[in-house]
Design brief:
Elements: H1 3-20, E1 25-29, E2 34-37, E3 58-61
Antiparallel strand pairs: 1-2, 1-3
Length: about 70
Amino acid sequence: MTNISQNISTKIDASLAALRRGSMVMIRDLNQRAGFVKAAEFADFELPKFPYLDQITPTLCFTKKTC
């Protein structure tokens, strides 16, 4: 595994752990559009459908609290 893929793997693992704890994670795509997500198990409202979700390439972003 290269350093870049290890770094990405570490970020993904940290994001998944945060989601399992009920925390929110910011996801950003290549067009610099971002949004906060949280695990569906912790949602307190009806989840909408995202018809174009398969057409974006998200990137992970962490706050100081999780870095």
